[in-house]
Amino acid sequence: MTRGQGEGLAQWNGEHGFPVRPESRLCCGPTQDVGPQTSCVGANIRTRRGIGAIDDMSTHITGQCLCGAITYEITGEPLVSGLCNCTDCQKQTGSSFSHVVIFKAEDYRQHGETGSHDTRGDSGDMVTRHFCRNCGSPIRSEVPSMSHLAIVKAGTLEHPGDFPPSVELYCKDRLSWLPTLEKVTRYEAGSR
């Protein structure tokens, strides 16, 4: 199956509310029924096809920082790809937004030690932003309530173009001159 052709549902979850696969039960727990009108952290579940979430793929994905001191490999499939326009992400990336791809944490393996900086998100959760201590490349983010997820900075992936975004968050902070992407679900803030 290729990216963008899958069946199934995407659930909304997390610090920024990225859609994730329902079978992973990332926020609803193992006993909660997940139906088409169920709400999970404040947003309706949507079909994966409807929002363009990434499809099933058995892969070996790699990435690294600019200088190569931090490398990583991911053996599982991506759950979703998204853009965040919040001012913290703008400052952390030194750019207009942050493009992230989310995987199960158990599928992410990193080689090399990162530095980190903590900030507090809108939810009140701490966001730990990991970066290469040598070249400064942002690598990934962690949120305690989502410790089961690896939020990887797409620009560090070997092939970032393989992961088009399906969601865009904090559009209220989006720079006005950025072009509007088609087939992307947008939220003024997080999706909560």
Task: Describe the protein.
By secondary structure, the protein is mainly β. The chain contains two helices and 16 strands. The protein has helices at residues 48-51, 87-93, and strands at 9-13, 18-20, 39-40, 43-44, 46-47, 61-64, 71-74, 80-84, 98-104, 108-111, 114-120, 126-132, 138-142, 149-153, 167-169, 185-186. The strands form four sheets. An eight-stranded mixed β-sheet has the order 11-12-13-14-9-8-15-16. The chain has a three-stranded antiparallel β-sheet with strand order 2-1-5. Strands 6-7-10 form a three-stranded antiparallel β-sheet, with no helix packed on it. It is globular and about 35 Å long. The model is unreliable at 1-57 (pLDDT under 50). Residues 61-164 form the CENP-V/GFA domain.
Strand order of the largest sheet: 11-12-13-14-9-8-15-16
The fold-level CATH name is glutathione-dependent formaldehyde- activating enzyme (gfa)
Helix count equals: 2
Question: Which term fits the overall shape?
Answer: globular
CATH superfamily membership: glutathione-dependent formaldehyde- activating enzyme (gfa)
Low-pLDDT sequence parts: 1-57
Give the number of DSSP strands: 16
Q: What portion of residues belong to β-strands?
A: 25-35%
What kind of sheet is the major sheet?
A: 8 strands, mixed
Query: How many distinct domains?
Result: 1
Average pLDDT, rounded to a whole number, is 76
Secondary-structure element string:
EEEEEHEEEHEEEEEEEE
Distance between the termini: 31 Å
| Proportion of helical residues | under 10%
Radius of gyration: 16 Å
